[in-house]
Write a structure and sequence with these properties.
Helix content is about 40%, strand content about 25%. The two termini are about 20 Å apart. It has about 280 residues and is of the alpha+beta class. A hairpin with a 6-residue loop joins strand 9 and strand 10. Strands 1, 4, 5, 6, 7, 8, 11, 12 and 15 form a nine-stranded mixed β-sheet that branches.
Length: about 280
């Protein structure tokens, strides 16, 4: 079909918008200064590696704008125009425009290989466990309340706090420490977000088992407690040109992205669905 003047004008406008989106030749990434295994200022996190992959695909130099508090990082960096892309945002986050999902993962139970594997929140082993490592505010806390074990674990959970910001009282839990609690035998099980735990489970000197928790969990009132989530990259609302570029990279680089995540030890779910979504 021959191109009309309308088609040509649209192509020209698209080209101008794409070039304007990165006129300085750089791609500014909103990144955590110290939130491993995702990102740090040394570039050691898997989101640092993803950012470099995207930058190379777009032929842009990656520049980082670091944040320290995950509660406000979108407001304080992306929304203010200090950076262009946030890596590792929940797909569909209403605060931003999100790309197609580049992976889907879930919360996991982590146990020692020489112990009893746990497959669900109904497991009798969870009722007998003396210590269960988890991050407050996560689905694990909700489910510990649902099965009547939260109060038992409250004091233990407070012992695991690794950091408190003097400025805003942000409490941080070190995933590596939570995994090591199981490896050392101090805790029988940990219930953690798989992408946060994968690196440390893989590197553990004590063989550990990581079991993805089924996404079929409910509170006592019947409300579902989600355990599986899709992850995207994000831009400011209205930055459709850059969003289109990110979607193109995610579609074209699915094999490389998957290889990177698998090397990290991240449990990947619905791989076929993510791949299909990335081709449309």
């Amino acid at each position: 079909m021959p191109l009309t003047k309308k088609h040509l004008l649209a192509l020209v406008c698209l080209g101008l918008s794409l070039s304007t989106a990165n006129a300085d030749g750089s791609l500014k990434i909103c990144a955590a200064e110290d939130e491993m295994p995702y990102s740090n200022s040394k570039g050691e996190g898997f989101e640092n590696k993803l950012a470099q992959l995207v930058g190379q695909a777009l032929n842009k130099k990656v520049e980082y704008v670091y944040w320290t508090d995950p509660r406000y990082y979108l407001r304080d960096t992306l929304d203010k125009g200090l950076c262009d892309v946030a890596i590792g945002v929940d797909t569909g986050d209403p605060r931003v425009s999100t790309s197609v999902a580049y992976y889907r993962s879930g919360y996991v139970f982590i146990t020692r290989q020489d112990g009893q594997a746990i497959n669900s929140w109904d497991s009798e082993a969870l009722q007998k466990a003396r210590r269960i490592a988890f991050v407050p505010g996560s689905p694990a806390e909700v489910m510990l309340r649902a099965i009547g074990r939260y109060n038992d674990m409250f004091n233990y959970s407070q012992e695991l706090i690794g950091y408190k910001s003097k400025r805003n009282q942000y409490v941080k839990y070190d995933t590596a420490k939570l995994v090591s609690e199981v490896a050392s035998g101090h805790a029988e099980v940990a219930a953690l977000w798989g992408p946060a735990a994968g690196r440390y489970v893989k590197a553990s000197g004590t063989p550990l088992t990581m079991t993805v928790i089924p996404d079929t969990n409910h509170r006592a009132d019947g409300e579902k407690v989600g355990h599986h989530y899709s992850t995207s990259m994000a831009v400011r609302k209205g930055n459709e040109a850059l969003l289109a570029q990110l979607n193109h990279v995610i579609k074209a680089k699915q094999p490389e992205i998957r290889q990177l995540l698998e090397a990290e030890g991240i449990p990947l779910l619905d791989a076929e669905q993510v791949a299909v979504a990335a081709t449309h």
